[in-house]
UniProtKB/TrEMBL annotation:
Name listed for the protein in its UniProt record: glutathione-specific gamma-glutamylcyclotransferase
Pfam families (UniProt xref): ChaC
GO annotation terms (biological process): glutathione catabolic process
Positions of the UniProt region annotated as Disordered: 201-243
GO molecular function, one term: glutathione specific gamma-glutamylcyclotransferase activity
Organism: Lineolata rhizophorae
The EC number(s) this enzyme carries: 4.3.2.7
Keywords: Lyase
Gene3D superfamilies hit by this protein: Gamma-glutamyl cyclotransferase-like (3.10.490.10)
Gene Ontology CC terms: cytoplasm
Annotated InterPro entries: ChaC, GGCT-like
Taxonomic superkingdom: Eukaryota
Length: 243
């Protein structure tokens, strides 16, 4: 539970929408990766990219040792899950904790994992990995779906939408955000789904979502301003339903 987090500054790792929709407060954003997990569109979304009647699909992380026991139609993933880590200063911990508590309702649980920064870090005491809080939709949560057929998954993402916008927008924004983190941060599972969705869209002659690339340069304020500009839906999607 987020309420168990001490009221100290902490690092939060984002591997999904947090990459392009930062938490409400942070004073440093660092691209980098974690290990020992696999990112998959295996979490059902009833309140953001879908509805209870027609849930969409969003990403979760699967422990690599558990993933090894499953039959996944997608190819073997890389050892690294790329994303962005945010440093939450102690003065903003209460506010960000409230924001994160709201996100947790979706079926995600808190875990801690070492994060490897891809660049210099100001708010770090040592040179090694940084302990990060990460939200994971565990296989035991009701929204966890398990392995998905890639074609069916792409078709499902294309037809889904929820209060936070179209499901395909989430997918396309995720791919763009990942490609902007570093030279090595692409994710074949995500890019494969993008290709399948684009191909289905062109077959159907529908208009593709324009996902303009965000930059990973600049101060947190500049990054947030740019990240805000690229979103076609409101910022802080996980908070929408409570406001
Ligand atoms: C993420 O972007 O890492 C994330 C966002 C909401 C819930 C879980 C994970």
């Amino acid at each position: 539970m987020a309420s168990e987090i001490p009221n100290d500054a902490f690092w939060l790792f984002g591997y999904g929408s947090l990459i392009w929709k930062p938490p409400p407060h942070f004073d440093e954003r660092v691209p980098g990766y974690i290990e020992g997990y696999v990112r998959r569109f295996w979490q059902s979304s009833e309140d953001h990219r879908g509805t209870p009647e027609a849930p969409g699909r969003v990403v979760t992380l699967i422990d690599r040792t558990h993933w090894d026991t499953l039959t996944d139609h997608h190819s073997s993933p890389t050892e690294r899950v790329w994303g962005a880590a945010y440093h939450i200063p102690s003065s903003k911990v209460a506010e960000v904790r409230e924001y994160l508590d709201i996100r947790e309702i979706n079926g995600y649980s808190i875990q801690y994992t070492p994060f490897h920064a891809a660049g210099p870090v100001a708010n770090s005491t040592g040179s090694g990995p940084i302990q990060c809080l990460v939200y994971i939709g565990l296989p035991s949560n009701p929204q966890f779906l398990g392995p998905q057929d890639p074609d069916a998954l792409a078709a499902h993402i294309l037809k889904s939408k929820g209060p936070s916008g179209e499901n395909k927008e989430y997918l396309y924004m995720l791919e763009t955000a990942l490609l902007n983190l570093s030279e090595e941060s692409s994710d074949e599972h995500v890019s494969d789904l993008v290709r399948r969705c684009r191909s289905l869209e062109s077959e159907r002659g529908s208009q593709s979502f324009d996902n303009r690339a965000p930059s990973n340069q600049g101060s947190p304020g500049e990054v947030r301003e740019e990240l805000h500009k690229i979103g076609s839906t409101e910022e802080q999607e996980e908070v929408e339903k409570t406001t």
